[in-house]
């Protein structure tokens, strides 16, 4: 875990915040304001009860004029009061959630872009759209790079490839992602990567189409692993599971 930078106007929601949000949601719903999530209010209340609802409080009044839940780690809601949109409030909430995810060691973010008019905003925040036209919904993901400190050691050549599970019976199947990070081998034989290697399991082109991801790891030209990431052997090698996939920092041989 890491420290989260201070965001003076962002806080965990209080009961008073929730009551105020409900009042302006009702007003906006009655006026048919686009991007009003009154229909999801029961879910918002559940998230608040779990202590996972975050709000932005206007500096002048200390009133909650925006809220977010889902933490950018799963599809959720972010809404700014209609009369205050376009002033950077949504960006501030997003930056807070990014910092929070980083502190939790979660670098793979996954959201639903709703309404579709929010897509340009999420693209400006470096989210990449997933082809989900067959679902009628818009999803996006972002993988945040994480640089790592290398110990003393000798250089190692590393290649990590990720495949759909068909690779188990189709040796010619190409990887959907491949990485060749700088790396060193320490005196114990462990191989340390200069940058965390991630794999998103939500489907890069179509949502929820990747299951049982297969990884292939090659070190100095020798294959040391080829199997599904869900198996213990992958965790023994150094892979870790996160909310939206897997990552590896150190390969323990």
If you had to describe this structure to a student in words, what would you say it looks like?
- The protein is α+β, with helices and mostly antiparallel strands and 253 residues long.
- It has 5 helices and 15 strands.
- The protein has helices at 15-30, 41-49, 89-103, 119-124, 232-237; strands spanning 10-12, 54-57, 64-69, 77-80, 108-112, 128-130, 139-143, 154-163, 177-179, 182-185, 191-200, 214-219, 222-228, 239-242, 245-251.
- The strands form 3 sheets. Strands 8, 9, 10, 11, 12, 13, 14 and 15 form an 8-stranded antiparallel beta sheet that branches. A 4-stranded antiparallel beta sheet has the order 1-2-3-4, with helices on both faces.
- It is elongated and about 65 Å long.
- The model has no long low-confidence stretch (mean pLDDT 92).
Share of β-strand residues: 25-35%
- Oligomeric form of this entry? single chain
What is the 3D form?
Answer: elongated
DSSP summary: helix tally: 5
Low-confidence stretches: none
The separation of the N and C termini measures: 26 Å
The share of residues in helices is 10-25%
Q: State the order of secondary-structure elements, H for helix, E for strand.
A: EHHEEEHEHEEEEEEEEHEE
Class by alpha and beta content: alpha+beta
Radius of gyration: 21 Å
Mean pLDDT: 92
- Record field, number of beta strands: 15
Largest sheet: 8 strands, antiparallel
